[in-house]
Design brief:
One of its GO terms (molecular function) is ATP binding. The protein has 395 residues and is an alpha+beta fold. The protein has helices at residues 45-53, 95-105, 110-123, 139-151, 169-186, 197-203, 221-226, 231-236, 373-383, 386-393; strands at residues 7-16, 19-29, 34-38, 60-65, 68-69, 80-83, 157-161, 189-194, 206-211, 214-219, 241-251, 254-259, 262-265, 277-282, 288-289, 298-309, 313-320, 327-333, 346-351, 357-359.
Length: 395
């Protein structure tokens, strides 16, 4: 039904008076790629998406869809589909009429219109719902109608602003897989805004991590999770242990570190060799309690301070025997064969040198002008009016 177009933004920026919401963002998105803009509230991800859609005018930079430079084009001439977080369905129109709206605005009628709507509803598994009104649908069904409406005119690019945010956890996870499967089958290019790390990891071909209006890192889900370039990325994506360390040498072509008097081996992967103080990151699931006779590159004695049951895992806080306090979070799988540790129990823990990552600890200026969450919401509310939504649906 559709085919994707490449999308490119170059040096995109947005200024609200003296407040800088987005600063010099450049991303190349390939045709048929699913790319998520991920970051906390106020990071600039939604403002970036709204500039792509045409609801916001960039202060600087350019936007290209395919070979077309669309930066100055109005919303209805960009040929893109948009799915909003609240779906923006017309409450007085049936499912059929909601999906047919964009086709009618293009002059499509008769059998061609009916066939287009039927195909779009079939794609989202809502055949037979044509006569229902939005208030008669569940949240998941309303989301599918909004998706069908965005796809019915076969756009090369679909922009989605947290479209699953209003769904409960179980339905949201189900819709993540359905949406990803549909996108792959159609080959549509999708730009997806989310603040949910798990959602981005599950659905994306690549993730653009944003913070304070800038891009922190672009990469595949595996690259973002396994080799974060900055402390922000490492802390925002998943859970991490951060240890203040000092480089004292090398071992087996990897760095040898001093952490509170303990010698720790790590890897240079994703980090330029240097001397002096660094930050070592270890994911909790990479650290394991060591049974008798089991060895690891890094082995340390400690005492269990806390144990928290988390369903399929148990999280332990372990204090290492070191010259200064060192507390590590250990995520151990909850298996019948796994030993269950108790508070105040002495334990030996360890991890592979390749699982310890050195990361950049560059701090951003505290004086940098960054748009906060409330300013972002106010600015977007002023432009994302009912008229604007109608324009994008008819685009």
């Amino acid at each position: 039904m559709s085919g994707g177009e490449p999308l490119r933004i170059e040096g995109l920026g947005k200024q609200y008076g003296s407040v800088r919401a987005v600063h010099e963002v450049s991303v190349q998105i390939e045709a048929g790629e699913f790319v998520s803009l991920l970051g906390p509230s106020g990071s600039g991800k939604t403002t970036t998406l709204m500039m792509m859609a045409g609801f916001e005018t960039p202060t600087t930079g350019q936007i290209f869809i395919g070979a077309r430079q669309v930066t100055g084009l109005p919303v209805h001439r960009r040929g893109i589909g948009v799915v909003f977080q609240n779906y923006a369905l017309f409450p007085h129109l049936s499912v059929f009429e909601n999906v047919a709206f964009a086709l009618k605005m293009r002059g499509v009628s008769g059998s061609e219109l009916r066939a287009g709507v039927a195909e779009a509803l079939n794609l989202v598994q809502l055949s037979g719902f044509e006569g229902r009104m939005p208030h008669e649908l569940s949240g998941g069904q309303q989301q599918r109608v909004a998706l069908a409406r965005a796809l019915v005119f076969r756009p090369g690019v679909v922009l989605m602003d947290e479209p699953l945010g209003a769904l409960d956890k179980q339905l949201r996870e189900h819709m993540q897989l359905e949406l990803k499967h549909l996108q792959k089958s159609l080959g549509t290019t999708v730009v997806f805004v989310t603040h949910d790390q798990g959602e981005a990891l599950t659905m994306s071909d690549r993730i653009v991590v944003m913070n304070e209006g800038k891009v922190e890192q672009i990469g595949t889900p595996e690259e973002i999770y396994e080799t974060p370039r900055t402390r922000f990325v490492a802390s925002f994506i998943g859970e991490s242990n951060f240890l203040d360390a000092h480089l004292i040498g090398s071992a087996d072509d990897g760095p040898l570190l001093d952490v509170a008097g303990l010698q720790v081996r790590a890897t240079w992967q994703g980090f330029e060799r240097q001397t002096g103080p660094v930050t070592l990151m270890i994911r909790p699931e990479k650290i394991i309690p060591l049974a008798a006779g089991v060895r690891a590159d890094n082995e340390f004695d400690g005492v269990v301070q806390e144990a928290v049951y988390c369903g399929n895992t148990v999280k332990y806080r372990v204090r290492l025997r070191a010259a200064a306090p060192v507390l590590l979070t250990v995520a151990a799988p909850r298996l019948a064969s796994s030993p269950q540790l108790r508070i105040d129990e002495h334990v030996k823990i360890g991890w592979d040198a390749r699982d310890g990552r050195l990361i950049s600890d560059e701090a951003r200026s505290a004086s940098q002008d960054v748009i906060d969450e409330h300013k972002a919401e106010s600015a977007l509310l002023s432009v994302t009016t009912a008229a604007n939504r109608m324009a994008i649906l008819a685009s």
